[in-house]
Amino acid sequence: MSNFKSVKSKEFVKVIEKLGFYLDRQKGSHAIYKNNDGRRVVVPIHSGKDLKPGTLMGMIQDIGINKETFFELLQK
Fold this sequence. Notes:
Elements: H1 9-18, E1 22-27, E2 30-34, E3 40-44, H2 53-63, H3 67-75
Antiparallel strand pairs: 1-2, 2-3
């Protein structure tokens, strides 16, 4: 089993917006967020559903922070 709590895409977006990411474009249910450093992360927008642990870890790596930092930002 996974050792981290479930995260919805809406919660993930709030964290990355705190880190300076902005919505660049969206195609269907996939929103592409970018920041000024050139990092990019694709967020699947499926309301009411939790992000799968593997998908979440990949997205956390894409934004360039570790999972501990991500979950600290999530709680603020």
